[in-house]
Amino acid sequence: MKDFLNNLLPHQHPLRLFYHKSLAVAASIAYGFPANKMTVIAVTGTKGKSTTCNIIHKILSESGKKAGLMTTVNFKIGDEEDTNLTNQSTLSPFPLQRMFKKMVDAGCEIVVLEVTSHAIMQSRVWGINLDTCVFTNLSHEHLDYHGDMENYKKTKGQIFKNLNGSQRKAGVAKISIINADDPEQEYFAAFPADQQFKFGVINGAYNARNLEPRPDGTKFTLKIPNGEVEVDFKIPGRMNVYNAVAAATVATAFHINLETIKKGLENMKPVPGRIEIIDSGQPFSVVVDFAHTADSLEQVLSMFKEITKGRLITVFGCTGNRDALKRPIMGQIADKYSDFIVLTDDDTYTEDPNSIAEMVRKGINRKEGDRFWQVLDRAEAIRLALSIAKEGDSVLICGKGAQEYKYVGHGKIPFDDRKVAREILSRVIDVELPTA
Hints:
Layout: H1 2-8, H2 14-31, E1 39-44, H3 49-62, E2 67-70, E3 74-77, E4 80-83, H4 93-105, E5 110-114, H5 117-121, E6 132-135, H6 143-146, H7 149-163, E7 175-179, H8 185-189, E8 195-200, E9 206-214, E10 217-224, E11 227-233, H9 238-253, H10 258-266, E12 276-277, E13 285-289, H11 294-307, E14 312-316, H12 326-337, E15 340-343, H13 353-361, E16 372-374, H14 378-388, E17 394-398, E18 405-408, E19 411-414, H15 417-425
Parallel strand pairs: 1-5, 1-6, 2-5, 6-7, 7-8, 8-9, 13-17, 14-15, 14-17, 15-16
Antiparallel strand pairs: 2-3, 3-4, 9-10, 10-11, 12-13, 18-19
């Protein structure tokens, strides 16, 4: 029935969009527009949203503010945390407004909200007057939904376009925070706001300098117009330095001092499923990451290729019923950086996993058996990768991150890459490599 309705009324059909907006209006009225009683920070972009949101929340907490948090990964009300098991980065209107109401009742003064392009297009954030909008970056993603990059960009831009003209809260400025290193930064910066801040590693008045990358983090100098501070950030990867500087820029806009920002950054732990280290005492590295776009996969693979003393072993697949154009590109990226590739399934939904894999394989310039295997049982794929690994190697398990379910057909089954890896690592691995 769902497939029939999707064919009858495509995702962006006016009737379907009207339905989404009607839900948002009804939910906002039903819960009394609770977001109007808090300052709302919205983070959008292709990559880094969940991590940036979590870092912002950490710094706010270090400054003594009680804040709420809603991301793909987790929900927080002050120090209380729950896992997001909905498979929605931005909740649908009624659960979203219910969570806002819960935060107001708990005494939160600020909420940090991850906002996706789907949520914007479907009016899920209608009735939520945003006060600060953060743009992390823009790269190839969700083109099956938006059609092309221009439409994708314009959808993201809607919250910046509406920011300055939205309802104002007493004493709360409308603030935009833009990644000055992103090629699309001028588009987002063109929308007016009371205050605008630009951050980056190369450009921006708020930036990171003197980066010293390590496998377990990065030391850098955080510079703002009127000061600087040395930061020992415990989350690895250049992309996470961007996330850290974005969060620090938000904190500066909220008049939080540099020492508190430093404390928040240095006390920040990795976000579940985002370059999450799985350590069971094995002599090689095992990392689970959410990388599910071509750009994010390239960033994480290139980083570990550089810091791995031994070989890089990559386990990944592509999601079904989603942007098919990125599949051969992701295959090509895996082929470029990986010493060994284990191609597997992801959330297949209603699509045939073999057809998904076939499209990915178009970008892999190796024959099966030549440091490349296709194993569509994800648990067995992880088992194979761990059996290959030797001392000094890195095994990257990409695509699902902290997700605790695998979506197959119209249902879901329990599956967590982290739990599977830990279970396998707890045993003695002695598996012969399959041949073509």
